[in-house]
């Protein structure tokens, strides 16, 4: 059931992401969904793709954080903003507003 809920969140968020590059980015981050509403330490299966996306497509992260569908899907935006730091990356989420 938990995997179904995570898959459902991916589908809902994917529907709100407009371009193919962002959809690809979201697919890479699917393994991070379980950490978006928890304070646990993310696994390497989440952090490694996240680090790749941070370096190769940071705009995707901004699009995901700014998507109204993320909060509607029950994803904690606070936890989502903290995820890079929990993976050992320094990312300024406020740069997305610029």
UniProtKB/TrEMBL annotation:
Positions of transmembrane segments: none
Tell me any Pfam family this protein matches. Answer: LTP_2
Q: Where is the Bifunctional inhibitor/plant lipid transfer protein/seed storage helical domain?
A: 7-96
Q: Which SUPFAM superfamilies match?
A: Bifunctional inhibitor/lipid-transfer protein/seed storage 2S albumin
Signal sequence coordinates: 1-20
List each coiled-coil range: none
Q: Which InterPro entries match?
A: Bifun_inhib/LTP/seed_sf (IPR036312), Bifunc_inhib/LTP/seed_store (IPR016140), LTSS (IPR043325)
- Which UniProt keywords are listed? Disulfide bond, Glycoprotein, Signal
Q: What domain of life is recorded for the organism?
A: Eukaryota
Protein family: Belongs to the plant LTP family.
Q: What is this protein called?
A: Bifunctional inhibitor/plant lipid transfer protein/seed storage helical domain-containing protein
What is the native source organism of this protein?
Answer: Nymphaea colorata (pocket water lily)
Its taxonomic placement starts with: Eukaryota, Viridiplantae, Streptophyta, Embryophyta, Tracheophyta
């Amino acid at each position: 059931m938990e995997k179904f809920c995570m898959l459902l969140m991916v589908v809902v968020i994917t529907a709100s992401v407009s371009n193919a590059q962002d959809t690809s980015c979201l697919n890479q981050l699917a393994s991070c969904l379980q950490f978006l509403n928890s304070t646990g330490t993310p696994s390497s299966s989440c952090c490694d793709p996240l680090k790749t996306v941070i370096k190769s497509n940071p705009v995707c992260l901004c699009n995901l954080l700014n998507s109204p569908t993320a909060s509607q899907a029950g994803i904690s935006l606070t936890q989502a903003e903290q995820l890079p730091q929990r993976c050992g990356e320094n990312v300024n989420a406020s740069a997305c507003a610029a």
